[in-house]
Specification:
Blueprint: H1 18-22, E1 41-45, E2 48-52, H2 56-73, H3 82-85, E3 97-103, E4 117-126, H4 127-132, E5 142-143, H5 145-150, E6 156-164, H6 171-187, E7 192-200, H7 208-217, E8 227-228, H8 246-252, H9 255-263, E9 266-267, E10 272-274, E11 279-287, H10 293-299
Parallel strand pairs: 6-7
Antiparallel strand pairs: 1-2, 2-3, 3-4, 4-6, 5-8, 7-11, 9-11, 10-11
Helix pairs in contact: 7-8
């Protein structure tokens, strides 16, 4: 994993969602997510815990972490209220579920209380929720409608806004995030995961090797394909296949994308340049049926390896 955002260009928020968004800041300590029979605490490794956010305050803490990683550490450009709030916020935050990794051993600092520290996050959007609002976030970059229609009997989950605080970018944190995702996937009977993963930089020529590798060696099969929107399409086949050194290309890929590849993911056609975040995005498509069995064995068929 890496701190790269899984981002897209959001569609305009539906009017029906605006009142909820306006009231979001007033609900700080109140429960705004109820997961029914799913315990929000999904797993633990040592002092680290992976859980689903249940309050507006926890969601705000995820937004603050995203701002720190995307805007302060990386090259994203804050816009509007983000400059003052120092939070990465958009209209999808209200309808998505937010996966958090907390460190219970983190020490208090001059500006921070002794409460557990949010050190990693992922944003999760189930298809049934997306369809009741403004659709998936990825549709701002890719034409995913044919993909959804071709597999209308399957349940899709969109993964987004992944980031981990730099000192925690290690196997334990990443493993907990994926343990949390796998638990969530099993609970909601998800069949397919999708999302936009990012390579840092906006000049495709500088990314010719990793983009060409994904195009030639990891393209989704025809029945799972989706294409970048025509107005945002950037070619990925910048090098011929015979010029691509797979070993060097893998080394050049962000850890997040390498992790998806190991799981069994494939990728859509065309990349998209996101100037606000300073990234070049690719579409990840990961059917649960395609996940490498050794990873299912590792986390357990019932996600029991790191269960809370």
């Amino acid at each position: 994993m890496t701190s790269s955002p899984l981002n897209g260009t959001a569609s305009p928020v539906k009017p029906s969602l605006i009142p909820a968004l306006k009231g979001f800041g007033k609900k700080m300590g109140r429960t705004v997510r109820d997961y029914g029979s799913l315990d929000p605490v999904l797993g633990r490794i040592g002092s680290l815990e992976v859980r689903l956010a249940t309050t507006a305050q926890e969601i705000r803490r995820a937004q603050k972490l995203r701002f720190k990683v995307f805007y302060e550490e990386m090259s994203a450009t804050p816009q509007g209220a983000a400059v003052l709030s120092r939070r990465d916020v958009d209209e999808y935050d209200w309808i998505c579920d937010h996966l958090l990794v907390l460190d219970h051993a983190a020490k208090a600092g001059p500006l921070r209380s002794a409460k557990p520290k949010v050190v990693g996050t992922y944003r999760l959007l189930r298809q049934d929720i997306a369809e009741r609002h403004q659709g998936f976030y990825s549709r701002g970059e890719y034409d995913i409608a044919p993909l959804l229609k071709a597999h209308s009997s399957l349940r899709f989950l969109e993964l987004g806004r992944s980031c981990v605080l730099e000192p925690y970018r290690n196997k334990r944190t990443v493993e907990l995030l994926w343990h949390g995702i796998w638990t969530y996937v099993l609970h909601y009977k998800i069949d397919v995961m999708i999302g936009c993963a990012s390579l840092e930089g906006t000049n495709p020529k500088d990314l010719a090797l990793p983009l060409s590798f994904l195009h030639h060696y990891a393209a989704a099969p025809a029945e799972w394909q989706a294409r970048a929107l025509p107005e945002r399409f950037t070619r990925m086949d910048l090098l011929p296949k015979e010029s691509v050194d797979p070993k060097a290309a893998l080394h050049a890929l962000p850890p997040l994308i390498k992790g998806y590849l190991r799981l069994g993911a494939t990728f859509g056609t065309g990349a998209v340049i996101d100037k606000q975040f300073g990234t070049t995005d690719v579409l990840v498509i990961l059917p649960v049926s395609a996940i490498n069995p050794r990873y299912i064995d590792h986390f357990g068929p019932t996600a029991n390896r790191h269960a809370a």
